[in-house]
Specification:
This protein is α+β, with helices and mostly antiparallel strands and about 375 residues long. The chain has two domains: about 5-75 and about 185-365, 3-Layer(aba) Sandwich (Aminopeptidase), CATH 3.40.630; about 75-165, Peptidase M42, domain 2 (Elongation Factor Tu (Ef-tu), domain 3, Beta Barrel), CATH 2.40.30.40. About 30% of the residues lie in helices and about 25% in strands. The chain is built from ten helices and 17 strands. The chain has an eight-stranded mixed beta sheet, sandwiched between helices. Strands 5-4-9-6-7-8 form a six-stranded antiparallel beta sheet, with no helix packed on it. Strands 10-11-17 form a three-stranded antiparallel beta sheet. A hairpin with a 5-residue loop joins strand 1 (about 45) and strand 2. The model has no long low-confidence stretch (mean pLDDT about 95).
């Protein structure tokens, strides 16, 4: 029987992961959380870039299945410090600068000190007419950590070029039932959380395969960790867990047919990097239908996921991406729904329990 996780324990994990500091290239804290939660019953494996997974052998060594979310969040890196102590940055991942002015951020120095600041820009009163009508550029922005003409703050705190930066935001439950969850870094700490929770649910299960569950690195800067992780683990099947765009917001061009939060996890038929193995796709759909677990079908023309890199590693791996619809990704706060999290864990648990050698033989090309 699958091990049950209490609602409170799952929520604590979500808070722990979203609070963690981990932009692309600096995911160590998140990897430590993966190890903390899986190390008691899994063999912890870590590749040369830092992707971290727990290996759990079930009743059979084959097939081997990798399920992973990426551990990195979008952030910034210090690119320069002005004479007055303002911090200039380069992006780590994709940002639309219009979501940034007046938002709080945290810089981590080489010594580990966390330095708080706010993203500054010209006041509306100072903008020329042509500036008001143009798209804001990241170069127009800066971080104020208590700047002064003698650069005192940067010197005192030890902020240097190359230091990583993440949004400052806190987990909060919204809505009358508290199931709308708001936090930073849902993209993609929710994928990491789901992978951990699936492994925990199977802790005492003799599933007919070997499971690798955990997190990859550097997805937001080019799906880099997915390639090294899949090469290192060498699974027979790989499933990426990520977020996808929620269409239930004003002005969404996919409002009539796109995924909506709270209506089930998204099973992706394609994204900008992956055409999934069709038999693996149908297998997961059949599992969800048989177990009466709600889901939505997703199709994303732009944007890629780790599934795309998993699929083309080594000789090729049958791959699929499962997602959770999330509002306002790549900003300081995202919103998703707790039911979608629980239902995605349920789909993956039932999938792992059913993926035996016979099923794999029917899935592979």
């Amino acid at each position: 029987m699958a091990t049950k996780t209490s609602s409170d324990d799952r929520e604590k994990l979500l808070i722990e992961l979203t609070d963690a500091f981990g932009p692309s290239g600096f995911e160590e804290e998140v990897g430590q959380i993966v190890e903390k939660h899986l190390g008691g019953f899994c063999e912890i494996m870590r590749d040369g870039l830092g992707s971290t997974v727990g290996k759990k052998v079930g009743a059979a060594k084959s097939p081997s299945i990798l399920i992973a979310g990426h551990m990195d969040e979008v952030g910034f890196m210090v690119s320069g410090i002005t004479k007055s102590g303002y911090i200039k940055v380069n992006p780590l991942g994709g940002w639309w600068p219009h979501v940034l002015p007046s938002q709080r951020v945290v810089i981590r120095t080489r010594s580990g000190k966390l330095v708080h600041g706010i993203i500054g820009s010209k006041a509306p009163h100072s903008l020329k007419a042509e500036e008001r009508n143009k798209v804001m550029d990241l170069d127009d922005l800066y971080i104020d950590i208590g700047a002064s003409e003698d650069n005192e703050a940067a010197k005192k705190f030890g902020v240097k070029v190359g230091d990583p930066i993440v949004p400052y935001a806190q987990f909060e439950k919204l809505g009358p039932d508290g199931k709308f969850l708001m936090a930073k870094a849902w993209d993609n700490r929710i994928g990491v959380a789901v992978a951990i929770e699936v492994a925990k649910a199977l802790k005492n299960e003799k599933h007919p395969n070997t499971l690798f569950a955990g997190g990859t690195v550097q997805e937001e800067v080019g799906l880099r960790g997915a390639g090294t992780c899949a090469y290192f683990v060498d699974p027979d099947i790989a499933i990426a867990i990520d977020v996808t765009l929620a269409a239930d917001i004003p002005g969404s061009p996919q409002a009539e047919w796109g995924e909506k939060i709270g209506k089930g996890p998204s099973i992706s038929v394609m994204d900008g990097s992956l055409l999934p193995n069709p038999r693996l796709l149908d297998f997961v759909l059949d599992i969800a239908d048989k177990n009466k677990i709600p889901y939505q079908m997703g199709s994303l023309g732009r944007g890629g996921t780790d599934g795309g890199r998993f699929a083309v590693t080594k000789q090729g791996i049958p791959s699929l991406t499962l997602s959770i619809a999330t509002r306002y990704i790549h900003s300081h706060y995202g919103i998703l729904h707790r039911d979608d999290v629980d239902n995605l864990v349920a789909i993956l648990v039932e999938t792992i329990k059913a993926l035996d050698v016979k099923a794999y033989e029917n899935i592979k090309p």
